[in-house]
Amino acid sequence: MTETNKFDDLLTHLGTGFWNLFIFFISFYCMMMVPPQFISGVYLAPAINYTCLPPEGNESVVVSEDSCSYTRVTEAGTEVEEACTEWDFDTSVFSSTLTSEFSLVCGRRYLQALYQSAYVIGTFFSPILGGYLADRYGRKVVVVVTQIFIAIFATTIAFLNNMVAILTVRVLLGIFNLLTLTVFTLETCEPKRRALLGMLLGVPWALGTMAWGGTAFLIRDWRWLQLAVSLPLLVILPVFYFMDESPRWLIVRGRHDQAVQVLRKAARWNRVTLQPEADLRALMKEIQEESATYSSTQANTDKKTKKFRLTLPILLSTHAIRIITAVVCIDYFAVSFVFDGLNLGGDNYISDPFLYITLSGMIEIPGYLLAAPIINRWGRRIPTVLSFVLGGVAITVIAFIPSELQVLRMSLALLGKWCISSVYQILYLYASELFPTEVRMQGIGVASVSSQFASTFVPFITSLLGPVLPWLTSLIFGMTAATAGMFTLALRETKDVPLPDTVADLSVTTEEAIVLTRDSWSTMASSTIFSVTSASAPEKDAEK
């Protein structure tokens, strides 16, 4: 029995009770606070109407059509074109925005997109930073520290008067948006509940998106709006005092006394009886020794294959793995590209940005919740293809519908959002089953990078291209989704198929099958937790 199975048996004995629900509540709350920061550009730096204000005293002035310049007649009678430096901004929808306060128009319009992308740029560093810190100092410490910094940075933005400073803080927000809390929640979850937990973890994002739309409807000044969605981040901080460190991490790090205290508290809160302390400590010692052995083996392997792993040639070594790597990267890119495009480009579908974002978040919930039963019945490949294609067609059709038919345009956009949300829920499991065990984390890591690149580029399309050619943005997003669906046809079905251990297994035909129902979600979560936790097992000298 492996370290993971032994600890999972311990979690099974503890069951699911108030202790687990308390951790889930913290995770749920913190995740719900992410959308208002991630897609804040929708309301803080939107594209709004404006008119050039030429200098006073120039009666014979002709303002250009784009209000970025004006032509005046000099005393000599010649015409001179000069750039506008002041504008009159429309305040019918927003009373104050970053766009109006810092004049993010004309030659500075790119800053609207950069404001949104700055957050995503920060997330490029968060997985590496979060993984190292959480393994070195513990899950709870990292979660608490990052949440404190996120609350401080988010609140600080509301008081800054410099665009460079605002962009810098946005990058820091992205860096501190670590995944430690998700790992912590999965580590403390009863194995048979991980499938349900994995399905529910998308719901806080949807609720946070809905709340973001409603809050922005009530508060139209960007500074007060930023404060309104940042101050709740401070409310949860005192609750962290009652949260325990991950018992799995404590055991692996050799802190058995603390682990016993945490497990006793968990048993008390869940109203179960814990096994005798002597047996519990013996089990902890076994788990730690197995984890240390695994870590030592991995360290020796890493020394031999450091160059190999850095260049990742194994992901391109055979035809089968090349197909998987290429298509999964395309799918990850497409799902983030279209998902973020639909979030940020709402003004292309309906004139009411508040209603659109609220409904957009609402439609995500069935997309997340229905994904699991659908793929358990019909597999992974066909639902992914159909969701991509159906969503892509719906979004593409918007490009050919007159802007006057806003209800129809919004309905199609929401249909596309539903489909893409389903793909988001399916894709991580599907990719985990496609990649062999020896390169699973590397493959998903490479695909995640392509996803982040997509999120970085999207704001420039919605902010710069959207106001000029709104039909083209719908065409781009729709065709991207449909194309990704077509590429997905090149992948194999993984339902009821043994998971490959090596790249060589991909080319071996086997008739042996395993049943991958909702427990496969738990299997993937367990293997991921095991690889993350075991890799952090300390050497004996480090423990001293």
From TrEMBL:
The keyword Transferase does not apply. One of its GO terms (molecular function) is transmembrane transporter activity. The keyword Methyltransferase does not apply. It is a multi-pass membrane protein. One of its GO terms (cellular component) is membrane. The chain crosses the membrane at residues 12-34, 113-134, 141-160, 166-184, 196-218, 224-243, 310-334, 354-375, 382-401, 407-431, 443-465, 471-491. It comes from the Eukaryota. It is found in: Membrane. Keywords: Membrane, Transmembrane, Transmembrane helix. InterPro entries: MFS_dom (IPR020846), MFS_sugar_transport-like (IPR005828), MFS_trans_sf (IPR036259), Sugar_transporter_CS (IPR005829). Residues 16-496 form the Major facilitator superfamily (MFS) profile domain. This is Major facilitator superfamily (MFS) profile domain-containing protein. It comes from Scylla paramamosain.
